[in-house]
Write a structure and sequence with these properties.
Layout (H helix, E strand, L loop, with lengths): L4 H11 L3 H4 L4 H11 L6 E5 L7 H8 L4 E6 L2 H9 L7 E4 L12 E7 L8 H11 E11 L3 H7 L12 H10 L2 E9 L2 E8 L2 E2 L2 E2 L7
The chain binds S-adenosylmethionine.
């Protein structure tokens, strides 16, 4: 079943108050993933689906005081928890949908998206919207603090070949959405894909031909 926005919002609203307590040891994994995304000092970075803002302090450290850190999320309750934890001190928070970002085209250097992609009803269109707001050559990190098999096991499932985050599927999806996959890692203790924004054509990000 495709995720539906109202259902996604209700799901995370019900979990917001306890979100950080469920995963208390993930901090260093976020810090390491942000280091690999490597947003430039003084640059502008978006945490898409930032939730309670677990990545925001690391993103702020990366871009420094002159940089810009934005955190957007569909679920206001998650952002309230981010503020309650003091993470609004690391970046500007706003309720927004990655389907339609309130940002100018090519205004960002990088996007960090943790645990987001599997909750999107139209991942191709949403990745394309993320590509719109990133400058050509800018970067995207799709991250999860556990790998696909471990995450599926938590939910009593196993992974299947049609999984959106399986390497060939994700590589192809990214290429169709304005991104070139740079690396792919799916270990027990993390999932991390980095991608680079493709050059822009007149209609926006130009999809790659072939396997990229
Ligand atoms: C698994 S949580 C991860 C939260 C945070 N990134 C973290 O790693 O702790 C997924 C988050 O994505 C948000 N989300 C889901 N669909 C979204 C959308 N279309 N636009 C913006 N945020 C969305 C949810 O509200 C939720 O906070």
């Amino acid at each position: 079943m495709k995720p539906d926005r109202a259902r996604v919002r209700a799901f995370f609203a019900a979990r917001a108050a306890h979100w950080d307590r469920r995963f208390p040891d993930d901090g260093p994994r976020y810090t390491a993933a942000v280091a690999e995304l490597a947003p430039p000092e003084g640059g502008a970075v978006l945490d898409a689906g930032c939730g309670t803002g677990r990545a925001l302090p690391a993103l702020r450290s990366a871009v420094g005081p002159r940089g810009t850190v934005l955190g957007i999320d569909l679920t206001p309750e998650m952002l309230e928890q981010a503020s309650r934890a003091g993470r609004h001190g690391s970046g500007h928070l706003a309720v927004a949908d990655v389907a339609r970002l309130p940002l100018r085209s090519a205004s960002l250097d990088a996007v960090f998206a943790a645990g987001l992609i599997s909750h999107l009803p139209d991942p191709g269109a949403n990745l394309r919207e993320l590509a719109r707001v990133v400058r050509p050559g800018g970067r995207l990190a799709l991250f999860h603090p556990v790998g696909r098999a471990a995450l599926a096991a938590r939910k009593g499932r196993t992974i299947t070949a049609d999984d959106l985050r399986a390497e060939p599927n994700l590589r192809e999806l990214l290429a169709r959405s304005g991104w070139r996959m740079l690396c792919y890692e799916d270990r027990d203790d993390r999932f991390l894909t980095l991608a680079a924004r493709l050059p822009t054509g007149p209609e926006g990000p130009r999809p790659a031909r072939g396997g990229g």
